[in-house]
Design a protein that fits this description.
Oligomer: single chain
Structural class: alpha+beta
Number of strands: 29
Radius of gyration: 27 Å
Low-confidence stretches: none
Strand order of the largest sheet: 3-5-1-12-9-10-11-20
Length: about 775
């Protein structure tokens, strides 16, 4: 067992502890970025002037009337930017447009006011003259126009044409599905100020403080060491705060530099929904071949991601989607082509799963549609195609531990009583004409690590004070997912002290530099490895001190429970006493830790390699009841078995599994993003721009029975304390809900009918699917 994954006896990791800020969350005492503005004097408030066109030339911008509005201090335009006018990942996203707007709602200027109302009034007074240009709003419009940007990668393995020739059954189809609004509770938020030395301090709700620092520094034309970014916590992120916050932080910093006063940028819900990127919608065309037993022989697919107006993170999102089209299934012959549609709407961005859900949804939709045409139960079709030992992915990475998927599947069949419930559902459906039930099982195999190998590194700074208390700084950010809780448990375990002796500091770029985003489900892997490394450096130094005090070799010293002991000695020392002794011996009591994920390699030009450290597995079974009158459904029961390795913090992991599943269910069944596609004056406008028009899951959508268990005997060698990532993989367990709805819809038609189900499977979409099968129409 590696040192990284080895877990000591009586470790603090693995214990069930509540979230470190749980009490502060529920009592309202937890501070967020916007709360800090209330503690400062003279804060200016920023408000955008938004474009009223999806695509247009800017003929003129007149801010004179705005400057006459009482309380307006400054109007910021592109001309005020001293450095590089760009906020994007690919240098194709100006912070403020110079002569062209690219989506409806794009900020063309910002007004700074003494209060928010003054800034709003000033924004209304700014006059912008536009010349309308043609716009592409839908992905189909972009495809028809040949409007693409970025790379067009391809995955190829085996001989698909030969595979199709050998296939007993070949199917073809198309599938277009929607994106998703992040709808984090805390909207985009930044607060910037300049101190007496010109140092810029930015408090920001960002998942990637280092990149926020980078973007701010180049927008202002200064060096990174003149900018400090701090993240107290976020009220949700889900990927929407990986790239999107940088421009707002840069605007706040620019405003502060121009005025010498603190500047606050906080988007209200409508601004956030009309200005920020979403999960990428996709269009897929596919062809698949099976042998007589229902084993997949070949797949050919074209995936087109709806990228919006600039690239943002669309390229890595697309490549991850392509790398996950196989989900849990062995495909010996495959060719997948990818491209990114350029449209005139918000630049789509990272969202929990980062393209993985989109790729996997294509495969799950295919299997759900063709199973009846193969004369197979969809559950059995899925099982027959699971990866087995010795097989590798379409990009040639060996699939380790595929037996865990089979184990989780079998555990689900037994614990959830699947066979008996399927019989009960068949009886129910036979006796109910207008209401039908469905039950589906779906698997998940999700790769963990960043697509770009260089991002797979983390840093930490651990400080031990003279009284023995410990302060942990690490490069990860807390967005409610419990990362700080896990890092506290890792530090307490590595140092052998009680959890109460360890505190976590806010994430800051002047404490831990050059960090990666808290994304790709890698927060615990990367930062946990770095925290453990820093703690072990300190512990090794303290072991030398304790060895002298106990009269034993340093290698015989053990730390645990706040005591320091030695092999073969009855005597023990208090942790704080050893720390105090180390201080007086002038032993360093702090350490910078570092971790890099080993064994990764990836050739983007050929789309081959081993981009993932490991795969996280899971299985979900969902049962639904669907009304034939209106297409609505009730989620009756959900059972989940999920592989988190040896959990660092089981209570936190259970919360992540439940939350991820529910968010995935929202994407697949409720959340219907709409843009105005008419030729009217509001063409390109986001029509679903508030909670009143965009439906996210609430308590009423929760399953009546919700059973979640962690896969046992799932230690992951080579990961911190044997754990596995948990942030993103559970979202894709929600495929089981959509497939259960498909099963219920099929029950309204003749036996063996294939159901073409839209995504999201809203009540309207389900109703029309029911009508289709009732009429015997095949997709």
């Amino acid at each position: 067992m590696s040192q990284l994954s080895q877990r000591p006896d009586n470790a603090v990791v693995g214990q069930r502890h509540r979230h470190e800020s749980a009490a502060a969350h529920v009592t309202g005492t937890a501070l967020y970025t916007d709360d800090l503005a209330q503690r400062l004097a003279g804060v200016l408030h920023a408000y955008p002037v938004q474009s009223t066109c999806a695509h247009a030339k800017i003929l003129g911008l007149d801010a004179s009337a705005a400057l006459e509005v009482p309380g307006v201090v400054r109007v910021i335009t592109a001309a005020d930017i001293p450095g590089v006018n760009d906020q994007g990942a690919k240098h194709d996203e100006p912070l403020l447009p110079v002569d062209e707007v690219m989506f409806f709602g794009q900020p063309v200027a910002w007004v700074l006011g003494e209060d928010l109302e003054a800034a709003k009034a000033g924004a209304k007074a700014v006059n912008v003259d536009y010349e309308q240009l043609d716009s592409l709003i839908t992905i189909k419009e972009a495809i028809a126009a040949g409007s693409f940007h970025g790379i067009q990668p391809e995955i190829a393995k085996g001989d698909p044409e030969a595979g199709f020739a050998q296939s007993a059954h070949v199917f073809e189809g198309e599938f277009e599905f929607a994106g998703q609004e992040h709808f984090y509770l805390e909207t985009q938020n930044s607060l910037a100020m300049v101190d007496e030395s010109g140092q810029i301090m930015i408090h920001c709700s960002t998942q990637h403080p280092t990149e926020t620092q980078d973007i701010v520094s180049h927008v202002l034309g200064i060096s990174a060491h003149e900018v400090t970014v701090q993240v107290l916590r976020m009220g949700g992120g889900f990927g929407g705060k990986e790239m999107q916050p940088h421009g707002y932080a840069a605007l706040a910093a620019l405003g502060s530099v121009l005025t010498g006063r603190p500047v606050r940028v906080r988007l209200d819900r409508t601004l956030d929904m009309t200005m920020t990127g979403k999960r990428h919608g996709f269009h897929a065309s596919w062809k698949i071949g099976f042998d007589e037993q229902g084993k997949i022989l070949a797949l050919q697919a074209q995936l087109t991601a709806d990228g919006g107006w600039s690239l943002d993170l669309s390229e890595p999102v697309l490549t991850r989607a392509m790398c996950h089209i196989d989900n849990s299934y062995w495909i010996p012959n495959i060719k997948v082509s990818g491209r990114i549609a350029k449209c005139h709407k918000t630049s789509q961005t990272a969202f929990r799963g980062f393209g993985g859900p989109q790729g996997m949804l294509v495969m799950e939709d295919i299997l759900g549609r063709v199973a009846p045409q193969l004369g197979l139960d969809a559950r059995e079709l899925r099982r027959r195609n699971f990866y087995t030992e010795g097989q590798d992915t379409p990009y040639y990475q060996p699939v380790r531990h595929p037996e865990r998927l089979e184990a989780a599947w079998n555990q689900m069949l037994n614990s959830a009583g699947i066979a008996a419930r399927e019989q009960q559902i068949a009886q129910f459906n036979a006796s109910h004409e207008h209401v039908k039930r469905g039950l589906a099982l779906t698997p998940v195999k999700f790769g963990i690590s960043f697509n770009l190998t260089a991002f797979n590194q983390g840093g930490a700074l651990v400080l031990v004070y003279k009284d023995g208390s410990v302060l942990v700084n690490h490069g990860g950010t807390e967005m409610g997912q419990g990362l700080h809780t896990k890092m506290l448990q890792v530090a307490a375990t590595a140092l052998g002290v009680p959890l109460s002796m360890v505190r976590n500091a806010p994430t800051r770029t002047d404490k831990v530099p050059n960090t990666s985003a808290t994304a790709a489900s890698s927060g615990s892997d990367l930062n946990g490895g770095a925290v453990k490394d820093a703690c072990e450096q300190i512990r090794d130094r303290l072991a030398q001190v304790a060895a002298g005090m106990l009269g034993v070799p340093a290698q015989d010293v053990r730390f645990g429970g706040g005591r320091v002991t030695a092999l073969g000695k009855s005597e023990s020392l208090d942790w704080a006493d050893v720390v105090s002794a180390a201080y007086f011996q002038r032993i360093q009591l702090s350490a910078a830790g570092f971790y890099r994920t080993e064994g990764l390699h990836w050739d983007l030009s050929r789309m081959t390699g081993s981009p993932f450290k490991y795969f996280a597995y899971g299985v979900a079974a969902s049962e639904v009841e669907v009304s034939g009158f209106d297409g609505s459904h009730v989620l009756r029961r959900v059972d989940i078995v999920h592989d988190v390795g040896d959990s660092l913090s089981p209570l936190v992991d259970l919360g992540q599994i439940e939350g991820g599943f529910v968010q995935g269910t929202g994407w697949l069944t409720l959340e219907d993003l709409r843009w105005d596609t008419s030729d009217g004056p509001n063409r390109g406008r986001v029509a679903t721009q508030a909670a009143s028009t965009y439906k996210i899951p609430s308590f009423s959508e929760m399953p009546e029975v919700f059973n979640v268990s962690l896969l046992e005997k799932a230690h992951e060698e080579g990961a911190v304390y044997g754990s596995k990532a948990v942030g993103e993989p559970p979202l894709m367990l929600a495929f089981s809900v959509r497939e259960a709805i498909r099963q219920a819809v099929a029950a309204f038609g003749p036996a063996g009918c294939s159901v073409h189900l839209a995504s999201p499977a809203t009540p309207e979409a389900v109703f029309w699917a029911i009508e289709s099968v009732r009429k015997g129409q095949q997709p």
